[in-house]
Amino acid sequence: TKLEAAQQALADYHAANSSAAGNTAQPVEAAQAAIEKAMAARAAEASLSPQEKAQANLDKLRGRLEKSRARLAESRAAGDDEKVIEAMELTVQRLTDKVAEAEAALQPGEEA
Length: 112
Description:
This protein is mainly alpha-helical. Helices cover 81% and strands 0% of the residues. The chain contains four helices and no strands.
């Protein structure tokens, strides 16, 4: 898997640079921390029920939609190029549709 490949690459990096100066330890530690965080998130996600996963996905989509709407408003206020604004409008519409689909999937008695 990608995770195993990343861990192997990190182990290879450690082996190749074991005699390197101490200032390289900090980025390696940061990379290891990021790997461990990703592994923990994946493990936590695996333990969620399908309903909890759907709710988490909906929450993420709502956050993305909120940020996209804010960026669109900023672009309009700044007078950005019309093509940029149109692209952002399409993104907002696409995310709005995805949020609606996710909300419908969470409704009791509804089949996705």
